[in-house]
Design a protein that fits this description.
The protein has about 600 residues and is an all-alpha fold. It contains 38 helices and no strands. It is elongated.
């Protein structure tokens, strides 16, 4: 029936009816109630007919979209008078009827193209704001909002709506003098939808949308703030927009938004700061405006989504050297560690990553504060969980990421002091790291091996580590890509033939991928008496003495370090070195007491 109405005479008839009545109004302004009723009836009929998708094509071919927009243009300045009396029996108004009709036709891609290419967006926003200023006009506001949401609801519609003209109208719609105007909120929602496409996000930034959206964050309306922060979050993924967000005061306003009561908006604001915190300059700026403290507070009072977002932002902020002490002063460590205690199959990698970054390249005081806050047992527990999952073949990607971060954190903490190394050992860290070296991904094996190398600095742990690692692998066949990390080959014990393999790697010279890692481990192993014997029996002294004459600085430096440790507290091996070297002033100086 709808299709028949439109195709037979409905489309042209509606068009004639509404445009002729508007012409009468414009010229003579006669019989206002009669023309309002006719326009409203026609528009509502269009709205009802548009519910039938095949009929929408006929409506568009009859140029109903253009007609409805022309009617709205005529009526927009007289909204307050365009409310029909109760006895009209329609319960609507001409403006509402036209907007409902546009809302009904909007799902059609051709309708979207028509509205995106003209001034329809600006007109709808103007009607919305004017209606919002009058009591009893909320039905018009709702119809305007509905039409705009449909215009940006699908990928096809979003592509059509991404024209320069449409974006400029939406950005202008944000600039209402009233921050609680409904048009500003709807414009922000539309930009939020459109900004999922990187090219469109860039164009929104170039059209001045960022400053306008940041201004809307000060709206007294929570829904408007939510729409604005959602759009800003999407825009922040585009590099060219990041500076504009910062220059427009976005860091300060987003930080302030973290203390608001709206949980979803807080989470989006924290995620936006997380993106911005990837920039070195922004790490400093966020900390300067109190961002670390605000994010830390969110860890204790926010919803789970807000906590995860805050932990992610703190993780990025923790890489800045000057920020690390702020974490300690703000009481952030216990909150991060509390998040690490949450059990489940999806571990909080953001909190573990924040602790890992705090431990990296930080002062002994910060590392000791991390240990004192109770991080070590939880980090070790994460390693054990991953090892168990690996054993039962149910390890998840999230679990592997968390394990990698936990192992890195332990590696960083072990480089600080003997007390930290013993705390790791007391928590079962040596055994957990050894299990990872024996069976894990190549990357995690390398990180675990690096942590063991730092633990091996402690004389009390060195023998335990060497005895614990038993890897049945022919190290010479390990691919060079694995040797970019100090992986299996670098820290196996003498029992597994590790020293011979390490000497083999060292003999390939400093141009080999595994040379630096192999030399570092040989230097550590050479302190232990039992390892000195294996080094000598493996003809390592001859190799090391020959490296002393290398043309490469790295090879000479590596040989000096290993030979010095080999001779340390071992006159027998010192004599063997002198015997192999013959008359060499450099060797004599190397072995001379300090």
């Amino acid at each position: 029936a709808a299709e028949a109405i439109v195709s037979a005479r409905g489309g042209p008839g509606f068009k004639f009816m509404i445009e002729s009545k508007i012409t009468c109004r414009a010229i003579a302004k006669q019989d206002p109630e009669h023309y309002q009723l006719d326009i409203t009836t026609a528009a509502l009929a269009i709205s009802n007919v548009s519910a039938y998708p095949p009929a929408r094509t006929h409506l568009i071919e009859s140029e109903l979209v253009e007609s409805l927009l022309r009617v709205l243009e005529c009526l927009k300045d007289d909204l307050q008078g365009n409310v029909l009396p109760d006895n009209a029996g329609i319960g609507s108004s001409p403006v509402e009827g036209c907007m409902r009709a546009l809302w009904g036709i909007a799902p059609e891609p051709r309708a979207v193209q028509i509205m995106a290419s003209g001034h329809a967006i600006a007109l709808i926003l103007e009607v919305m704001n004017s209606s919002g200023a009058h009591n009893g006009q909320q039905a018009i506001v709702s119809a305007c909002k509905g039409a705009l949401r449909v215009l940006t609801s699908t990928n096809e519609n979003r592509e059509a709506m991404s024209t320069e003209q449409a974006l400029q109208q939406l950005v202008k719609g944000l600039e209402s003098t009233l921050l609680d105007a409904p048009g500003a909120e709807s414009a922000a929602l539309a930009l939020w939808d459109l900004s999922v496409q990187p090219d469109t996000a860039l164009n929104i930034g170039n059209a001045g949308g960022i400053a306008a959206l940041i201004g809307l964050l000060s709206s007294p309306t929570a829904t408007a703030r939510h729409a604005a922060v959602g759009a800003i979050h999407n825009l922040a993924f585009v590099d060219q927009n990041k500076d504009k967000i910062v220059q427009s005061g976005g860091v300060e306003i987003l930080t302030g938004l973290l203390s608001q009561q709206e949980e979803e908006s807080c989470a989006i604001a924290a995620n936006t700061l997380k993106i911005l915190a990837l920039s070195p300059d922004n790490k400093v700026r966020i900390a300067m405006v109190g961002g670390i403290t605000a994010l830390s507070t969110l860890l204790s009072v926010g919803c789970q989504r807000s906590k995860d977002a805050a932990a992610g932002a703190l993780r990025n902020l923790a890489t800045n050297k000057n920020n690390k002490s702020v974490f300690v002063e703000a009481g952030t460590l216990p909150l991060l560690i509390n998040m690490m205690e949450v059990e489940g199959s999806d571990p909080n990698s953001a909190a573990i990553g924040a602790v890992c970054n705090l431990a990296f390249n930080s002062t002994p005081a910060v590392k000791e504060a991390i240990v004192a806050a109770g991080a070590v047992p939880l980090l070790v527990a994460r390693l054990k969980t991953t090892a168990q999952d690996k054993q039962h073949s149910n390890d998840s990607l999230a679990g592997l990421v968390a394990c990698e971060l936990a192992a890195r954190a332990l590696w960083n903490l072990a480089s600080c002091s003997g007390s930290n190394r013993r705390a790791i050992a007391d928590a079962g860290g040596v055994e957990a790291l050894v299990r990872l070296v024996e069976a894990s991904t190549p990357k995690i094996q390398g990180i675990a091996a690096g942590a063991l190398s730092h633990l091996a600095i402690d004389m009390q742990l060195k023998d335990a580590i060497s005895s614990a690692i038993v890897v049945i692998v022919d190290i010479h066949n390990v691919g060079s890509s694995m040797l970019l990390y100090p992986v299996i080959a670098c820290y196996v014990s003498r029992i597994a033939g590790g020293i011979q393999a390490l000497l083999g790697l060292a003999s390939k010279g400093s141009q080999c991928d595994g040379f630096a890692a192999a030399a570092s481990v040989l230097k550590n192993l050479a302190v232990v008496q039992a390892n000195k014997v294996v080094l000598a029996e493996s003809d390592g002294i001859t190799l090391l003495v020959s490296m002393m004459g290398s043309v490469f600085d790295a090879e000479r430096a590596a040989a000096r370090g290993i030979l010095r440790n080999l001779a340390f507290n071992s006159p027998t091996h010192a004599a063997m070195i002198l015997q192999r070297a013959g008359s060499s002033k450099s060797i004599e100086e190397l072995l001379a007491p300090n």
